[in-house]
Amino acid sequence: MSGAIVIKNVSKSFRKSTIRREYTTLKSELVRWLKRQKRPELPTTSIHALRDVSLVVPEGKTFGLVGRNGSGKSTLLKLVTGIYSPTSGTVDVHGRISALLELGAGFHPDFSGRENILVNGIILGMSRKEIRSRVDEIIEFSELGDFIDEPVRTYSSGMYARLAFAVATHVDPEILIIDEILSVGDEHFARKSSAKMEEFRRSGKTILLVTHDLATLQRRCDLAAWLDRGQLMASGDPVEVVNAYRTAVAEAEVAAVEQPAHAPRDRAVRQPRSGPPAETGRRWGSFDSELGPVTMRATSGPQQVFSPDDAFRLDVGFEHLDGPREASLELTLRTEGGTTVWVSTVELSGGASRGTAQLELPRLGLGDGNYLVDLALTTDRGQNVRDVQRGLHGFAVRAQAQTGLIAPVHAWAEQTSGP
Fold it and tell me: How many Å apart are CA 259 and CA 356, to the nearest integer?
């Protein structure tokens, strides 16, 4: 395998310390020593942070890691940066790394911001001449002003983040590694750092990041991986990985909800027979009829990443289990931020107990971004809500050199007059 970062069959375990709950006196210790008695050995246990993980981060790509807290994401980044060594397996890195792992990591609290810039630049492999030539640029980007000559122990978390990001992105790394540190920055600096990361992407740098902002991961990353309890659950296209992760989280949350022992059985939340489980705000209804499977297609077949010029087809399966079969299917297309793009409704005739509703768009015509498809199946003119699925289905549009919500067919023409 080749790539900027190659992780092969990596496992990482930490020894779990056991506290000896035994109280002794000088006399008891002396008696033990005279009798030459050994202390009983404590059992040795291990915490397995990663289990047989294999990943390749291609050169020049942005790769995102997603997973719940404690899933092993930060441990994996520390293995890549060399802070940890793997218990088994190999980690190969090809290129100079700059990393933002923990707030304030690598900074001496009693040194000023300016002094920490010099120290960190040297630690990251730059010569004194190189780092001195970039000090002013780093200070300007951080916007710390007069605070740059104050001890960093006096900095707020946001000031730490500014300085850390400025240093990490201005030391000319080939690989940038970020572990959720930008979440502490203000809105202005978040936009500024996002623009800097886009500059990194365009210049062919490799970025490996951990984030809980799933919209950012889908929008910014070329590839993604999902870790859970130290195991690799999925990797590949960010939209598919995030959808798999969201489904698993929803299933776990519903499974964790226990019905009170005194609650009547008929009051338990009714669950659908197939597809994602019932969950407040995401899937609900009587489930007398059910939706699924839901498939998005282009001309070449099923896919989840489209261009504005692609043909788009949505197949929505349905099955009536009880009650009337005449139903309405409403589709709401919206951005991940919640902006409604389009709403359309189709009446299902009710001639069969199951079938598929197909929506066809000869040209998708949407701008670059991530989109969600919400579905609602109702009967009796909307009075009986049978199956509503919100935020469970999505796709991405990748448009070159086009921004905005729509990408209409258009042409420019120029008319001139005069000399």
Answer: 35
DSSP class of 273? S
The residues, any chain, with a CB within 8 Å of residue 399's CB and separated by 6 or more, are: 307, 308, 367, 368, 407
Q: Does residue 22 form part of some domain?
A: no
Tell which residue, 368, 312, 77, has the closest CA to residue 211: 77
Tell me the per-residue pLDDT of 200-256, one tens digit each, with 9 for 90 and over.
888 888 999 888 777 778 777 889 999 999 999 999 988 788 878 876 775 565 454
Strand partners, 312: 361
CATH code where residue 167 lies: 3.40.50.300
> Could you give the angle at the alpha carbon of 244 between the alpha carbons of 241 and 245, nearest 5°?
85
- Model confidence pLDDT, tens digit, residues 152-198: 888 887 888 888 888 888 877 889 888 876 555 566 777 777 788 88
- Give the C-alpha separation, 56 to 362, whole Å: 36
In terms of residue numbers, what domain contains 177?
Answer: 5-14+46-244
In terms of domains, do 290 and 225 share one? no
Contacts of 417 (CB under 8 A, 6+ apart): none
Going by their DSSP bridges, the two strands 384-397 and 340-348 should be labelled as: unpaired
Among 297, 306, 270, 303, CA closest to 285: 270
Same domain for 278 and 236, yes or no, is no
CA distance 354 to 318: 6
